[in-house]
Write a structure and sequence with these properties.
The protein is an alpha/beta fold and 172 residues long. It has one domain: Glutaredoxin. 26% of the residues lie in helices and 24% in strands. The protein has five helices and nine strands. The protein has a five-stranded mixed β-sheet.
Length: 172
């Protein structure tokens, strides 16, 4: 499948200097990381016993964040062995993300863009449900602070992590 990234997220674009809190307690500025980094942006992860946002079932691409994150968890070793760092990112709070990361056993930090600074700076695609704005699913690779490649659209979140690993293998 051919990738069609949002027109403004192009290879070579310099990332903005935005620092985000991570589930491991650190603060991360993606623009200053050296080497290759993968960022998996997702809209929202549910929590057992908590209902989905209103209309969630009717929004194409809204579902699938948990299987996608579990896929990245399961493929963390080959991603790490490629020399890449991995982060997930959503607009949820760090405390909400921390519970999810522990429950799913994620070996990588999840970044909170609760205030929307990164979403605004990169003009990340979004949608609304129940009057709340959520980031659309998109992944991108960064090399020394610049966007290298964009995965969009992501039509099958569950198989997406394997596509990222395949892309990494094609680069080596």
């Amino acid at each position: 499948m051919e990738e069609h990234p949002p027109i403004h997220l192009t290879p070579g674009l310099t990332l903005p200097v935005v620092t985000l809190p991570a589930t491991d307690g650190s603060d991360i500025c993606l623009a200053t990381l050296e080497g290759q980094t993968i960022v998996a942006v997702y809209p929202w992860t549910g929590k057992p016993g908590l209902p989905n946002p209103p209309g969630w079932d009717d929004i194409p691409g809204a579902h699938g964040s948990t299987p996608e994150l579990e896929g990245f968890r399961d493929l963390f070793e080959p991603i790490s062995q490629s020399g890449s760092k991995l982060f997930a990112l959503s607009g949820q709070s760090t405390s909400f993300q921390r519970e999810m990361a522990l429950r799913l056993g994620l070996p990588f930090p999840v970044l909170s863009d609760k205030k929307g600074a990164m979403a605004r700076a990169l003009r990340l695609p979004a949608f609304e449900a129940g009057g709340i704005k959520y980031l659309k699913r998109i992944s991108f690779t960064i090399s020394d602070g610049r966007i290298e490649y964009v995965f969009h659209p992501i039509e099958d979140p569950e198989s997406h992590p394997a596509r990222v690993v395949d892309w990494l293998k094609s680069r080596s």
